Amino acid sequence: MSERSTSEPRPHVAAVGTPAPEPRLLVAENLEREYRTGPETVRVLRGASVAVGAAEVVALVGASGVGKSTLLHVLGALDRPTAGRVLFQGEDLFARSEAALARYRRDEVGFVFQFYNLLSEMTALENAMLPALIARRPRREARERASAALAEVGLGDRMHHRPGELSGGEQQRVAVARAIMNGPRVILADEPTGNLDPKTSEVVYDLFLQLQAARGIAFLIATHNPALARRADRIYRLVDGRAREYDGTADVDSGLV
User: Fold this and answer.
1) Helices (H), 13-167
2) Can you name the residues that pair with 223 across neighbouring β-strands?
3) Which residues fall within 8 angstroms of residue 180, CB to CB, at 6 or more apart?
């Protein structure tokens, strides 16, 4: 795989005769999310719209507390919007039954969090097996899938170690292995390098790009790191609860302050 440039993203210009792009895989349309805190109503999202294409890496930048995690939680069906729609493969996600939403969270989307969210008493292998076991796959199959996933993320020789015996970067790679266990179409990563040093952050981001190329997985990555954001196919900035696609006319770093 060729190294992606760290320069500013270039606009995509279709040549004459180029086939039309595939429909977006995951789309947020004018999302709003409000929370009641006592007598007050806090509006976190105020009409946010984003789109992620199949096998596309999209970065989401914005200041702390602006609503990046809330947006990812809605897109992952961990939370419901107050208004607006989420479309997955062209279908209204929240028109589905609760059972269908559970299948979406289990099979179609993977999650990677800043703090890894690994179970400390379990080995890397056992942590990675969890999504397959939740999907009621046979334990032997879950073990084989987890072993293969850990080898794919470079932890074939560390799978019997517990989180406390692993570095931060290794723990995050276990989390990535867990996220790909059920073959998701898209991974939502919420500040996945926030606890890592710059060199390890690059390793984790390189892993995302490898999975994009090898498995065709799409990524939506919330990040404070402008250097990593610039390596994405496209960038959205979340400002005042609204997501705007970065077009190169402003400094992307300004979305991080």
Assistant:
1) 68-75, 98-103, 124-134, 139-152
2) none
3) 110, 149, 152, 187, 211, 215, 217
Contact of 122 with 159, CB cutoff 8 Å: no
3 state DSSP class of 151? helix
pLDDT at res. 246: 84
Three-state DSSP class for residue 24: coil
d(CA 243, CA 67): 10
Q: Nearest-CA neighbor of 182 among 148, 208, 155?
A: 148
Residue 88 exposed, middle or buried by CB count within 10 Å (0-12, 13-18, 19+): buried
pLDDT band at 50 (very low <50, low <70, confident <90, very high): very high
**Rounded Cα distance, 200 and 206, in Å:** 10
Q: What is the pLDDT of residues 134-148, one digit of tens each?
A: 999 999 999 999 999
Residue labelled with tokens 């595939």: 22
Provide the β-strand partners of residue 139: none
Give the DSSP H/E element, type plus range, for residue 200. Answer: helix 198-215
Contacts of 207 (CB under 8 A, 6+ apart): 153, 154, 173, 176
Amino acid letter for position 238: L
Residue type, 9: P
